[in-house]
Design brief:
The chain is an alpha+beta fold and 420 residues long. It has three domains: 95 residues, Rossmann fold (3-Layer(aba) Sandwich); 71 residues, 2-Layer Sandwich (Dna Ligase, domain 1), CATH 3.30.1490; 210 residues, ATP-grasp fold, B domain (D-amino Acid Aminotransferase, Chain A, domain 1, 2-Layer Sandwich). 28% of the residues lie in helices and 26% in strands. It has 15 helices and 18 strands. An eight-stranded antiparallel sheet has the order 13-12-9-10-11-14-17-16, with helices on both faces. A hairpin with a 2-residue loop joins β9 and β10. The longest helix has 14 residues. The chain is globular and about 55 Å long.
Amino acid sequence: MRILVLHRVPYPKIAYHRGIDHALHDVTYFGRRAALDTLPDGLRCERVERPGLRTPYDEARAWLDAEPRGFDRVISMSEYELLDAARLRADLGVQGATVEQVELARDKVLMKRAVAAAGLRVPRFLPVEEFLASGGASPWTGRTVLKPHRGASSVDVVVFDSAAEAHAALTGRRTGVASIDEDGRGLPDHEVEEFVEGPILHFDGLVERGSVLTLGAAEYVGTCLAYAQGAPMGSFQREVTDTLADWVAAALAAVRIENGSFHLEAILDEFGPVFLEVGNRVGGADVVDTFELATGVHLPSFELRVLVGGSVAGTLPPPPAERGWYGWFVHPGHHLGAGVFEGFDGAGAFRSDPRTVTWHELPAGAPLPDHITYGAHETALAGIVGTDSPEETRDWLTRLFASLSLRTSAPHARVPDPVA
């Protein structure tokens, strides 16, 4: 089988060799140089570098026009390139998720409409242009969230105290979102929705031909929006009730996620779950590793097996004999601007705690990231903890976040080389 991978996620995060037999299949990785550099030496594959000046779809089309060839599968494991892969599949006549399916699982307005039509609760919402056309009239009056239709990592997400405040900020071009405030070009790409109170959960798992094969649930400590603004965050695993499992299956069916991994977020209020958003992909941070520790299932591996045409139902490994309850944690550094990481105060007891499974801290003197990232070895701190109960994991994370204090220094000035 000839497989084209639109390669963006660093190879170690996916471990493609665990899901694709590179000796059996002819695999081509198409990506920017930085992504291709993460491929392991000796991996049997073709590496094709793209410039990165246009979309992956446009650059793949230009490459294929210059060097025509066919593929049996076109795969992307990155949320940002799922649509490019779907468009290529359509052009090449390759099976897999269609453009319409990918759009439904990428656009927050489309997915909420579909989930609501299936009878599940969603926050009340309006595309920004409809909100403005109505003069700010909305079915809710309280706290209001402005967010991009297809955003990730809470970039350009703003919370206002009321719908009226959100309307005034939009009309006055003072939302804090550059694409809206500068020239309004970003207005069609945003929505407003009511702010729903309650714990935020994420559900992760694998679906094949519409059937959920494995499912896990976790509750956030902190939020993605607060992380974007500089606060640490994480999540701890919790029980999946039959009611929640049925709700997840219904939500996935509504947005037509039929094959592969999924990462679904919901708010749990007094009446049950309220759908927020979903992706046909694995979760970020250390979601994949904590899921495997708890269940024995490495989600990307089994997703790849599904995507290349193999059935995995009935082949998943059994969970560990003793159930552990895991959580992941990340501490940002991007919010501090250009700076140098010098270490953490208050981290020692947690670093050496026997419950700490992994601890990835930037080395002292390393530059802080200049963008939002949850990746280990990129952000200031990332790791995993494992305990005997959800409550113990939650409390451990809460204490860690309260104890940490990040130390930084200004960037070191570069000393010019002496002139010979």
